[in-house]
Amino acid sequence: MSTHVQLSLRVGTADGVSLAEAVALTDLAVESGVTAIRLADTGALDPTVVASYLAGRHPGIGYLAEVPTTGNAPYNVARRILSLDRATGGRAGIVLLAGNGDEVSEATVPDPTAADPVQRWIEYAEVLTRLWESFPREALIGDREAALVVDTALVEPIGHEGAFYRVGGPLDGPSSVQGRPLVAADLGALTPEAVAASADVLVTDEAEGADARVTEALHRVGRTRAEVALLGRITPGTDPRAWIAEHRLDGVELVPEGGADAAAALLRDWAGPRPDAETLRAGFGLVPA
Fold first, then answer.
1. How many folded domains does the chain comprise?
2. Does a structural domain hold residue 37?
3. Is the pLDDT of residue 275 over 80?
4. Cβ atoms of residues 200 and 90 within 8 Å
5. CATH number of the domain to which 246 belongs
6. What pLDDT is stored for residue 289 in this prediction?
7. Which of 53, 98, 169, 220 is 20 to 30 A from 47 (CA-CA)?
8. Mean per-residue pLDDT, 210-229
9. Which Gene3D superfamilies did the record assign (predicted)?
């Protein structure tokens, strides 16, 4: 089994790398066989904008942009991530971070007393996935003779009304070539039970027992372990290759410490064969959604 490698970068901050350094590191990541670049939400540069910039120079690698629920309405985020996914040919996703709400959603929030960040994350992820499926690709007809562009019968509003969000939908563009963009989550901040229904990629600091907990949580919602990539987060100075096999992980998330030089050294340590995959979902060994 191949080991999936994801590189985490903080772009535009004093403790991270510059945009120019991120371009060079992405080039090295492509050469090193990295599956995806995770772009942190630092407050300095919008991760989705950074991802778009990097993808214009390196389209053959995946991009996962961190987006918190705080300050971001789900409909707007769904459009932004799907636009990134379309621009990268199906190599994009979101690392959804649990937090608070946003001004747009709170103006029509169904339950003003709802406040649990984990429950908000669960509902937010559900809204994202339903929006990404609301305009299926097969709805695009493009029939000149019939003057028909879209089969509107296939495009359906989601009509979501939950405790935190009221979202009508649908989106105004077709779904992804990979089914839908990936949803990634950090275990620890979120439990396996919270993310089981929606997550495609999980990252953990505590590998021991993670596979069993994730497998059980997935089983309870009718999913299998093969539908999720489980990554262990590592920092420089560790050699977890045996650790990966022992804990049945699918790969690692590399978290460099010390700027661009440290990131480059970490990438060289983990250089491997280039994944032969046309989408990010396939790059992680997952079937289309």
1. 1
2. yes
3. no
4. no
5. 3.20.20.30
6. 84
7. 169
8. 98
9. Luciferase-like domain
